[in-house]
User: What shape does this take?
Amino acid sequence: MTGKALLKPQWLRVKAPQQQRIGEVANLLKGLNLNTVCQEASCPNIGECFAGGTATFLIMGPGCTRACPYCDIDFEKSPRALDPTEPQRLGQAVAQMKLRHVVITSVNRDDLSDGGASQFVACIEAIRQRSPLTTIELLIPDFNGDWDALAKLMDAAPHVLNHNIETVPRLYRRARPQATYMRSLELLYQVRQGWSKVYSKSGLMVGLGETDAEVIEVLEDLRRHRVDIVTIGQYLSPSPKHLPVDRFVTPEQFEYFRSIGETKLGFLQVVSTPLTRSSYHAGEVQRLMAAHPR
Assistant: This one.
């Protein structure tokens, strides 16, 4: 991870955030002792999302049992016990923020027998008690291929199930050393096979050293595994200790990926821009669900 860092291009600059609204959301989350991936993973869209009163909740953290070298979430060798009050606090936050759509993700918890599936289920139940009309999207880890844990979670009936493929298979050993490409594809296929009414979603980063042709191959794999929605965004290195940016993909190339995905491959939606992240503008999925009901 050496060499001169690439200069960030103009198209990756974000607007100055509305500090007052950001403070209101941040104070609410702090008061309820909740973590967000917006803060923990240094998301570039935190200003826009917090100003809009939205957030992606990060449960079972803040420490992660995996140390992926692209990710800014802290590695924790001895993870803490699950907090049984977390689901209720999360449900309270969703109600207070009056969210129409909520995204819940988690750190990897390979130390738990079910990978944390039970905590996801408890969070879904708590949200439905307080905000029954809120649509729920989960962004989940791979559960080490434990499909019984996946079934436990899926039987709680989230509206959208997201599991990120993250990068091309050639770069897995470098970027996701504790995961496997085929296991992630199989998880996504299991979702569509067993729970056909749920919208499946995945995402990948570009700028880690992949080629455009490899990105298209990943899109083809995802479509073969019946994924509905894909997000594609520019990788930004959180620090000099993380994987470096190999290239900055142009907005025109992102548009090309979107066109291939939607027009040629038939995804319901491909969100592909430099600043796209897995849960960026996730609430737009409600319009997609209305246009393609199940």
In short: The chain has one domain: 14-291. The chain has a mean pLDDT of 88. The two ends are 46 Å apart (CA to CA). The beta strands are 35-36, 56-59, 101-106, 135-139, 160-162, 199-206, 229-234, 269-272.
